[in-house]
Input
Amino acid sequence: MKKIQCVVLGATGVVGQHFLRLLASHPLFQVAAVCASEGRIGQRLGDVNALIPEGIPAESADLRFSAMDAKSLASLKVQVAFSALPTEVAKEVEKDLAAAGIHIFSNAGAYRMDDRVPILIPEVNHPHLALAREQLQHSKGFIITNANCTTTGLALALLPILPFGIRKLVVASYQAISGAGYPGVPALDISGNVIPYIEGEESKVRKEVAKIFGCIQETTIEPMDWQVYAHCVRVPTLVGHLLSVHVEVENEPTLEQVQACFENYQPDRPVQGLPTAPVKPVVLLQEKNRPQPSRDVMLGDPVRAQGMTVAVGRLEVEKHVIRMIALSNNLIRGAAGGSVLNAELALREGLL
Output
């Protein structure tokens, strides 16, 4: 099968470089172009500052930065764009490229709450791909977003307990500094400290959870009506968003029943076997002091899916309340890896 040619938008940032890493030697996609700011045009990708331990993949190091416009990318036969652009830039660029026939898989938040655009987490809401099909009735290309990095970990942690009937969520997130991008939070502000407010983050969690778990009705999504309360805190860890989650459910499950739901959970068939899909998207850890970012943030099997599994621990059940700690990799599952998985699913479902 001939690989689909793609571009990484925002290739100089941390998430952009994770896109490059995940797409290196990918069985379905090949990086044909990279884009960043106008000042980068013509420069060699391999000469940029490496922001992740793996560095710039050798197979794409000799690429030169292209202009971020449809004509330039069309000359390179680009069909798919993976976007790590800042929201304010993504709002114009992604719309223009989609109108020109390039399919956008975006980590940016510019279009997450657009009624025509799905916030896709394949294991959670793969039927929402119908919104992308609907976009193609009116445009040459489509936009599919992944969720905010905090919302992604929360949504996956909730998947196994959906059968108990969720009514209310009370969530506190402890978010790594890498979630603020590069250069991120000033060292003097975060060293030996926590910052109990992240602008816009709590409202994102509330709105995105409602849309992600909403019911699709023809070409619209009816948001889920759960009560969602969130506090989001920045902490001085490097990678990994930890969440303390209290879930009020309709039934009164036993601890053993809830444990069994986590241990027996399997993703739906449309997602199984995709290159970046973990065999177990959610794992339950039994140790009392787990999950921990330093030990569990790269969970996931096979190797290509490392960092794609959400770890759950400290599971407790009391009457109508399920309590747990969840950990997700904000740079992989919550960012680049999520978008790559979305593209793999879209290809399998005939959208590319």
